[in-house]
Amino acid sequence: MVTVDRLTKMAHFTPVRGLPTAAHTASLFLQNVYRLHGVPESIVSDRGVQFTSRFWKHFCRALGISVDLSTAYHPHTNGQTERVNQSLETYLRCYTTYLQDDWDTLLCTAEYAYNARLHDSTRCSPFFMLYGYHPPPLPDLPSVTPVPGVASRLRALRQCRRTARDSLIAAQTVYKAYADRRRSASVTYSVGQRVWLSTRHLRLSCPSKKLGPKYIGPFTIVSMIGPVAARLQLPSRYRFHPVVHVSLLKPVGTNVFPGRSLPPPPPVSTDGSDAFEVAQILDSRLRRGVLQYLVDWVGYDPEERSWEPAVYVRAPALVRAFHVAHPGRPGPLRV
């Protein structure tokens, strides 16, 4: 588990075998963060199950900690931790054994090397930013000692220092250059704007994703979460998170061929079943005791309207609006 302070850039590397539960994560936080630095004002994390669980939310709420989750499918929202992860991964890959059974013993050296090194953004080491003075330099390790076991340990420690320093510097340089190369000027979006959503992280129902659509929608932006994330108005049957990074969006342009009809949007499979977006509820009826709605689908022509059982129409706002406008039509007991 990697923890990075947003101000000082101080990092702590905690070995964890397997995916920790929310309770285990809370215990690791108390042992490795709270014990040293107290309670933070907020925590930015990815959307792992332990961080989205009720236990973690109530745990942080009890301590007065604001929980901020990274944008769906865009780990750069928590960019500084992702960058440290890349550096740490490079170091461990260079120095761990073939069986990869000693990585946890290397974390202390990697953590010291990271916190003692000059940081690009602050131009100070995290150690200096936190404590106000530079870490004392490690003494030169003697090459000769009368105890063979000590000599072996000193040689390993000397190599660890050298590898940690070189690997972390090289990894941060490469990762920064790669991120800068992929980073481009983003389009400015606004509330109410219609956009297409990239299917890069969606599971489509078409046989081959390579031949499937690159974007689906269009969807309406209901709010902006800062300049780089947008909340979309999605049908309730879409189970993916409605807040997405703007790099996954594309503004809806004008149709360059006014006389040409656009192809209908494909269904999106997010939980093993196809999901289509409901544009409007047009009518309701009872057939053999089953409530049905006449549904107008987004992106489809009027001839594609269909009667659907109410249990399959997961658009509560549209259903409510229909019955408010047509109180005499068949409906559920409570709407």
Automatic annotation (TrEMBL):
Entry coiled-coil feature ranges: none
Integrase catalytic domain sequence ranges: 1-134
Main location as per UniProt: nucleus
Cellular component, GO annotation: nucleus
Pfam name, any one: Chromo
Cell location: Nucleus
Protein origin, superkingdom: Eukaryota
Matches recorded under InterPro entries: Chromo-like_dom_sf, Chromo/chromo_shadow_dom, Chromo_domain, Integrase_cat-core, Retrovirus_Pol_polyprotein, RNaseH-like_sf, RNaseH_sf, SH3_Tf2-1
GO BP terms, alphabetized: DNA integration
Sequence ranges assigned to domain Chromo in this UniProt record: 276-334
One term of GO molecular function: nucleic acid binding
SUPFAM superfamilies: Chromo domain-like, Ribonuclease H-like
Protein name: Integrase catalytic domain-containing protein
Organism: Leptobrachium leishanense
